[in-house]
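TICKET: design request
STATUS: open
ATTACHED STRUCTURE:
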């Protein structure tokens, strides 16, 4: 009889060990694996610009192309944070309260920036579908500017102020 009780204890310890090993081996790595490809929230350029031009304070509109490309031509109202600088500038971006809209040439680099920011906990992201090429094809306003090295905070507030100044009084 004592042998049967001892055997039951061994069985309980064995099952507990198997369960613990299963949890450690199978559940821990799952948080690091993307079983399903992450979805990027794309927005058509015209749809984005319609809301952005009325409510610029709701957005941080970022062009992730190199500074030279941005200076030549960029979507009206966008600020430049090159993809190569995103690591350093991400801490200055809002994780809530404003939507971060990303644009590049065709959508590839802004997709990389999207994934990168999402990895750091940003859930308030949108990508302009098709990039500046689709923006231009939709007939939306572009502008050029001389190269200016400014902080992210200065770029964001300058963009909001510029839109506030260009809006008719009844919109504000």
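STATUS: resolved
RESOLUTION: sequence designed for all positions
ATTACHED SEQUENCE:
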């Amino acid at each position: 009889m004592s042998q049967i009780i001892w055997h039951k204890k061994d069985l309980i310890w064995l099952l507990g060990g198997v369960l613990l090993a299963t949890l450690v081996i199978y559940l821990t790595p799952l948080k690091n694996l993307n079983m399903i490809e992450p979805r990027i929230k794309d927005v058509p350029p015209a749809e984005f610009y319609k809301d952005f031009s009325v409510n610029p304070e709701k957005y941080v509109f970022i062009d992730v192309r190199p500074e030279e490309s941005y200076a030549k031509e960029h979507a009206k109202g966008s600020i430049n944070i090159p993809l190569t600088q995103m690591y350093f500038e991400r801490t200055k971006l809002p994780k809530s309260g404003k939507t971060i809209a990303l644009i590049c040439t065709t959508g590839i680099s802004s997709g990389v920036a999207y994934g990168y920011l999402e990895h750091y906990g940003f859930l308030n992201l949108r990508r302009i579908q098709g990039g500046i090429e689709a923006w231009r094809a939709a007939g939306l306003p572009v502008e050029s500017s001389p190269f200016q090295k400014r902080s992210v905070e200065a770029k964001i507030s300058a963009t909001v102020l510029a839109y506030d100044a260009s809006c008719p009084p009844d919109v504000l």
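CLOSING REMARK: The mean pLDDT is 84. The chain has two domains: 2-32, 42-166.
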